[in-house]
Structure formats: structure tokens, C-alpha cells
Amino acid sequence: QLQLQESGPGLVKPSETLSLTCSVSGDSISTSTYYWGWVRQPPGEGLEWIGSIFYSGNTYYNPSLKSRVSMSVDTSKNQISLKLRSVTAADTSVYYCARHSTSNRVGWFAPWGQGTLVTVSS
Amino acid sequence: SSELTQDPAVSVALGQTVRITCQGDSLTNYHASWYQQKPGRAPVLVVYGQDNRPSGIPDRFSGSTSGNTASLTITGTQAEDEADYYCNSRDSSDDHWMFGGGTKLTVL
Questions:
Q1: A67 vs B: CB within 8 A
Q2: Is the pLDDT of residue B5 over 70?
Q3: Given A63, A105, A109, which is nearest B94 (Cβ)?
Q4: pLDDT at position B92, please?
Q5: CB proximity A54 to B under 8 Å
Q6: I need a labelling partner for B73 at 20 to 30 A (CA). Which of A35, B53, B58, B105 fits?
Q7: Burial class (CB in 10 A: 0-12, 13-18, 19+), A113
Q8: Mean pLDDT throughout B59-82?
Q9: Do B102 and A105 touch (CB under 8 A)?
């Protein structure tokens, strides 16, 4: 059964870099044909797609975050990582990772990790 | 860039049918996927594509698209269906994905 688990600091200072890792079990990132995505959700608000990455390193990002985001894959650890630079309080959110499937004219995110709350505060 | 618009809140009587809609220009080129989210929990995929359900999702959940509007229909709504529902699709002019603002479903 495929499972994803986010991990990383729960508190980040303003202007610093948020770094999170998503550990994947039950499937190998490097042999799958899926993308792996990050989605965030500010407290009490809706979902926002951050970006998606293929095991080869091919990425695409939300244009509104593109200048501050980078994602990477570590196939030896079966993990994907997210970095968000120059954070502000507006980046306070629950961050989720999810497998991102795409097919003819449709894409979907499933399953999802449980999410991890990151608070930006001094 | 495009966006997806959902009604903020919808209510339905127990056992009745409810339709949750998602409107956006990109939906004329790409199908939507739909997610159910209960308080404090991660989203769960309930419908994707033309009308596909992951295993374990009850068949009372169904999806459809007409023009620039995608719909999630719940037939015979149960109390446990009370949740927030989000649509998701790809922007037709760019290589990125987007979510609707979400619809809070209340079961009366």
C-alpha cells in the first residue's frame, strides 16, 4: 500500500528557507510513471498547488511561487524534497505531498500524506 | 491565467441529491478531479476524469462536465458526506495545476 509521510521543521523564521521531505513507501519513485506533488493549505483556507516533480528531476511549479520554490528527488532514499525561500507569515500552511497522476486530459492527486503544519514566525 | 470557481457553501437534506459545481475555462480542455476534505484530515480523491472513482469510494459519488463547468454529484447524501469539496484541473495555457476555492457541504 502506497504511503507518503511529510517531515521537517514546524517553525521557520521569516526570510529563511522552508525545507520539507516527503518519504514514499510502497512504491519506488524511480520506477513509477507518476509525478509527485506538493500542495499547501493555509489555516482555514483552500488548497494551493505548489509544484510537481518526476523522478528524472523534471519539474513544474505554480507560477505564483516559481521564483522561490525548488523541488528535488532522492531516489536512493525514495524521497522528494521541497524548498521555499524567503518565507513570510503568508507561507504558514499545512504542507501535503501526494502522488500526482496524469492521463489524457486529466490529472489527480492520490494518495496524500497526512500533512505537516509549518508556521512562519520569529 | 485561468481559475476555478466554486460556490462557497451548499446544503442538502439527508438522503437527497446534491450537485457541487466548478467553473473555469480550462475545463473545456481538461477534466476535473474532486477531493473531499474533513476537518483536520488530508484531502481524499473521490472522482477524477470523465466519471472515475478510486477503489473504496461509494458509487453515490459521480462526476460530469458540460462546457466550462464540472460537477460532482452525490446521490442519496449521507451524514458522513458533510465536508469541504475541492475541484482541481490543469490550466489550459500553462503547465500548471489549480484548485477551486472549495465548497463546504452541509447535510441537514
A1: no
A2: yes
A3: A63
A4: 77
A5: no
A6: A35
A7: buried
A8: 97
A9: no
pLDDT at B1 over 60: no
Q: Is the pLDDT of residue B93 over 90?
A: no
Chain B residue numbers with beta carbons less than 8 Å from the beta carbon of A63 are: 1, 94, 96
pLDDT at A61: 95
B27-54: average pLDDT: 96
Q: How far apart are alpha carbons B6 and B28 in whole angstroms? A: 16
Does any CB of chain B come closer than 8 Å to the CB of residue A60? yes
- Parallel, antiparallel, or unpaired: how do β-strands A35-41 and A48-53 relate? antiparallel
Cα dist from A100 to A28, A37, B9, whole Å: 14, 6, 27
The residue ranges of chain A whose pLDDT is under 70 are: none
Cα–Cα distance measured from residue A3 to residue A111, given in angstroms and rounded to the nearest whole number: 7
* Helix, strand, coil % in chain B, rounded to nearest 5: 5, 45, 45
Tell me whether residues A47 and B86 touch, CB distance under 8 A.
Answer: yes
